Amino acid sequence: MKYVFSAACGVGALLAASVAQPALATDLGVAWMGVSGMTNRVMAGFQERMAEIAPDVNLEIHPELTTEEELEAAIAEFEATMDGMVILRSNGSQFLAGRVTSIPTFIGGGNHPPSLGVVENMNAPEGNITGVTYFIPHEIPLQSYMALLPDVDSMLLLLQEGHASGPVEEEGVLAACANLNLSCDVTYVTSADELAAAVGDNVDTYSAFLLGNTRLTIDDAAVAVEAAGDVPVFAFTGTPVEQGVLAGYVADDEKLGRMLADAVVEVLVEGTPVADVPVGTDDTPLLYVNMTTAQRLGIEIPFQMLSTATIIE
């Protein structure tokens, strides 16, 4: 925090000035690299919650930076002028993994922090960094998808080449598939055309397709659905379900944004050490189900799942 003192004549005047001093402002920098709908949802929850619980915190936001050089410049500026900073997205966490920060730093809108190398112990985060993550152990959504498709025995995971979450998704999904006796493979794509081709060429090979948590596979989910035809497509986010994906099991991004705000206030306003603020996760993820797609594929959704799912018509 920044302390401002003014000269006063005499002890009495100094005491009077100190009593009249208003609450000290806290300055927080926020930055992320690239464009992401998830980041926008996290920021919506974050800013809403900050306005509720810490309206005096000043936010300086550097959105949608285009290069690592710009991100480094923003971080350096924050370290020189801010009391703390929020760095969003998986690529931001990955960038911080190779950098020591001099002010409390918060991550959000990103995948599994240990896999990205930014925090090793999520319960007692080291390196002056904590925050939130959308990560859910991959076995949990896969078990939900298997409940929808009892006969499923194989899946193809589709990921965007070069996305920071790609390797995290690949490692987690393949390990979960092995534990669940599913035969799973991975394909990386760089465009919507490649995504369509990867799906279309494999409709007779796999029981289902799985869209990873990467921007291209989220934004172009409709392309995958069309190419898949009568083969179900699942996702690790909710947005693709609106594009015809059968189901998605996902953390609530706006909820995570509010949790991120709570972590910021706990450290910067209340003075809790960063290491005593665990990295937050959503312990009540949401299951999205597209009923139109389920009816088209002739899939009957178990009543227990319907009673708790968010239904997309």
Shape: elongated
Number of domains: 2
CATH architecture field of the largest domain: 3-Layer(aba) Sandwich
| CATH topology name of the largest domain | Rossmann fold
Query: What series of H and E elements makes up the topology?
Result: HEHEHEHEHEHEHEHEHHEEHEHHE
Count of individual helical segments: 13
What structural class results from the helix and strand content? Answer: alpha/beta
Low-confidence stretches: 1-23
Strand content: 15-25%
Annotated CATH homologous superfamily of the largest domain: Response regulator
Amount of helix: 40-55%
Gyration radius from CA atoms, angstroms: 23 Å
> What average pLDDT do the residues reach?
91
CATH class of the largest domain: Alpha Beta
Question: Can you tell me about this structure?
Answer:
The protein has 313 residues and is of the alpha/beta class. It has two domains: 24-135 and 253-276, 3-Layer(aba) Sandwich (Rossmann fold), CATH 3.40.50.2300; 139-250 and 286-312, Response regulator (Rossmann fold). Helix content is 41%, strand content 20%. The strands form two sheets. A seven-stranded mixed sheet has the order 7-6-8-9-10-11-12, sandwiched between helices. It has a five-stranded parallel sheet with strand order 2-1-3-4-5, sandwiched between helices. Helix 5 (113-116) links the parallel strand 4 (105-108) and strand 5.
Question: In a nutshell, what does this entry contain?
Answer:
The protein is α/β, with parallel strands linked by helices and about 325 residues long. Helix content is about 40%, strand content about 20%. It has two domains: about 140 residues, Response regulator (Rossmann fold, 3-Layer(aba) Sandwich), CATH 3.40.50.2300; about 140 residues, Rossmann fold, CATH 3.40.50.
